[in-house]
Amino acid sequence: MDLDQPQMQQDAPTPRLSIREEQKLRTRDRLLDAAFEVFSVVGYRAATIDEIMKRAGANRATFYLHFSDKLDVAAGIGRRSSMAVSDRFRQLDKMVAPSQADIRTWLENDLNERRNHKVMVDIIHEASSADPRFGQEYLDYFVRIAERVMVNTVARWPEEQRPLARMKIVCLFTMLHRLEFHLLCQELDFGHYDPVEALADLLWNELFAPIAPR
Predict the structure, then answer these.
(1) Which end of the chain is more exposed for a tag (fewer CB within 10 A), N or C?
(2) How far apart are CA 66 and CA 68, in angstroms?
(3) pLDDT, one tens digit for every residue, the chain (214 residues)
(4) Do residues 127 and 44 lie in contact, with contact meaning Cβ atoms separated by under 8 Å?
(5) What is the pLDDT of residue 13?
(6) How far lies 126's CA from each of 55, 71, 116, 171, 194, in Å?
(7) How far apart are CA 17 and CA 6, in angstroms?
(8) Which of 117, 137, 120 is nearest to 128 (CA)?
């Protein structure tokens, strides 16, 4: 689930794909779309490669030309959504001395955006729970977020504390992913407690309180 690549300079020419390369990309996208539909209906665990091939109208040779197994497909789906997710974390990183209210607003906006794509939340959660390899890739994604995206936030910490700041980011964003699943997919009832307020408070206290006045 690699992060989106840095944007090319405006004057840099965009390489033109050959007809064969374009066809290959279209076939790969068709397989990913088919897998997303199958995962949405039966879940990651129950889905089979045969179902994905059938929905995509592809044969086994075509599938294995693009993907090694079901995990590889799920990772491909995750990578396609990583750019939008990374952009939301960049919005958080651009905040200068945010208040707790600012963090809550960002969190509510993030949850609202994820609510529009809760099938994706469900797929990622199920895949990471069912397959440790996918879980490791998703954890590695949060590590890259901490290292490559949250650079302004980390830079405000004393240099000797920056590894701790990055680890806090990984832990807190992993917690956010879990909360998204409980709220959006399982629609759990937290009673009179407000999990969004609690997580916003955690984010502010652990990431921004050491570098900003309350």
Answers:
(1) C
(2) 7
(3) 444 443 333 444 556 778 777 888 899 999 999 999 999 899 888 999 999 999 999 999 999 999 999 989 988 888 887 778 889 999 999 998 899 999 999 999 999 988 888 888 888 888 888 889 888 988 999 999 999 999 999 999 999 999 999 999 999 999 999 999 999 888 999 999 999 999 999 999 999 886 544 3
(4) yes
(5) 54
(6) 21, 11, 18, 19, 25
(7) 20
(8) 137
Measured at the alpha carbon of residue 155, what is the angle toward residues 149 and 158, in degrees to the nearest 5?
145
- The whole-number pLDDT of residue 206 equals 93
* CATH number belonging to the domain at 16-67, selected among 3.40.50.150, 1.10.10.60, 3.20.20.190, 3.40.50.720: 1.10.10.60
Q: Which amino acid is at 102?
A: D
Whether the pTM exceeds 0.85: the reply is: no
Q: Give how far Cα 96 sits from Cα of 3, 70, 91, 129, Å.
A: 23, 42, 11, 35
Query: Is the Cα dihedral 66, 72, 77, 81 positive or negative?
Result: negative
Classified as helix, coil or strand, 86 is: helix
Long-range contacts formed by 103-112: CB under 8 A, 24+ apart = 103/200, 103/203, 103/204, 103/208, 104/196, 104/197, 104/200, 107/176, 107/196, 107/199, 107/200, 107/203, 108/196, 110/176, 111/180, 111/183, 111/184, 111/196
